[in-house]
Specification:
Blueprint lengths: L1 E6 L4 H12 L4 E7 L4 H11 L3 E4 L2 H10 L6 E4 H9 L6 E4 L7 H9 L3 E4 L2 H18 L2 E4 L2 H9 L8 E8 L17 H4 L9 H9 L1 H13 L7 E5 L5 E7 L4 E5 L5 H9 L13 H4 L14 H9 L3 H19 L7 H12 L8 H16 L6
Parallel strand pairs: 1-2, 1-5, 2-3, 3-4, 5-6, 6-7, 8-9
Antiparallel strand pairs: 8-10, 10-11
Helix pairs in contact: 2-3, 4-5, 5-6, 6-10, 6-14, 9-14, 10-13, 13-14, 14-15, 14-16
């Protein structure tokens, strides 16, 4: 049986991963689980899947976990080092990296250094540390397989394709709630309107990123490192039906596409079973029922964050770190009603304009650059 560590087991990706494990019966076993403060759900997961190690957010949550847990004996650790210990656990074959934000980077690095397969669902890790993770994987023999649906689609399209045959990689975007909204009307959009995504149920930050299309900007940077792509090889198309997740154009003019229903269990399962394909109890794509597949270029006037992401894409790695940090704080300020929707891009642009770029050397350097970018961003956000 293949042993898994699930980092971020109580989040959406983590819960879906454990659902995939359940559906594949005896193919996988759970060796370790790591989560933050949702210890009640973590205790339920541990009682069901019986890992040998569990990591919680801190010592207090570890004590609460032990109070709630009534399963077989296991080892409990906590904090960033606890998650890293779960990631490099010797018995683990695959690490699902789904801790949100840069809080998951240390554990992802630990998994890569251990030479394991990493099913990567932590976008920020590859945005901030793409070069570092790629170099570490080359030395350790680790395999990084994307879980994000668009990158999983690219990964599947590239199977058996020589890299020199690829002309363009295109990620698709749903367009979010404001795809049909005129640019002049965006300024007064409220958090409630931005969170009303037409197709996906996601956390508040990711949903706002979809509304601004910054999620696709970050995915461009992620794709640059996942697939060793040049900036000019990467593109985005708005595809409201969210059936085609990515396209790969080859030098002879052929275009490969990956299609599937909008269910995160598809890319999660492929990341776990690759190169094999299993028969899951998942919905089957009915193209006759879909009837229409549409594609549109994104409007740069409505979605200026895409151009800012492309700017960071061609600069030293500290620009991507600053972009991610500035966007995160600006989105939080918008959700807190301290800035307008259209101010998000303005804040990020101001931070990048003042940023002096350089390459990040290691984890501590990345975290230092992230803190510096957050301090620089704070001056552009009004306090309550």
């Amino acid at each position: 049986m293949t042993a898994l560590t699930v980092l971020g087991s109580t989040g959406s990706i983590g819960r879906n991963t454990l659902a995939v494990v359940d559906s594949l019966n005896s193919r996988f076993r759970v060796a370790a689980l790591a989560a933050g403060s949702n210890v009640r759900l973590l205790a339920e997961q541990a009682e069901k899947h019986r890992p040998s190690l569990v990591s919680t957010g801190d010592a207090s949550s570890a004590r609460e976990f032990l109070r709630l847990y009534s399963g077989p004996e296991l080892r409990v650790v906590w904090g960033e080092e606890g998650a890293a210990e779960a990631a490099r656990l010797e018995e683990t074959d695959i690490v699902v990296s789904a801790i949100s934000g840069l809080g998951g980077l240390a554990a992802t690095i630990a998994a890569v250094r251990s030479g394991k397969r990493i099913a990567l669902a932590n976008k920020e890790s590859m945005v901030a540390a793409g070069r570092l993770l790629r170099d570490l994987a080359a030395r350790s023999g680790a395999e990084i397989v994307p879980v994000d649906s668009e990158h999983s689609g690219v990964f599947q399209c590239l199977a058996g394709v020589r890299r020199e045959e690829v002309r363009k990689i295109t990620l698709t975007a749903s367009g979010g709630p404001f795809f049909m909204t005129p640019a002049r009307e965006l300024e007064d959009k409220t958090p409630e309107e931005a969170l009303a995504h037409p197709r996906w149920s996601m956390g508040p930050k990711v949903t706002v990123d979809s509304a601004t299309m910054m999620n696709k900007g970050l995915e461009l940077i992620e794709a640059r490192w996942l697939f060793d792509a040049r900036p000019e090889e990467l593109d985005i198309l708005v595809h409201p039906q969210s059936i085609v997740h990515s396209l790969v154009e080859l030098r002879d003019g052929s275009v490969l596409a990956q299609l599937s229903p909008t269910d995160m269990r598809f890319p999660i399962q492929y990341a776990l079973t690759h190169p094999r394909r299993e028969t899951p109890p998942l919905p089957v794509l009915d193209l006759a029922g879909v009837r229409r597949l549409e594609f549109f270029p994104p409007d740069p006037e409505k979605f200026p964050l895409l151009d800012l992401a492309r700017r960071a894409l061609g600069e030293p790695s500290s620009f991507s770190i600053a972009l991610n940090a500035a966007n995160e704080l600006a989105v939080a300020a918008f959700l807190d009603r301290r800035v307008r929707f259209t101010d998000i891009a303005g804040i990020v642009a101001a931070v990048l304009d003042a940023h002096r770029g350089r390459e990040a050397d290691d984890l501590q350097d990345i975290l230092r650059l992230d803190r510096d970018a957050r301090r620089a961003t704070a001056q552009w956000i009004p306090r309550r």
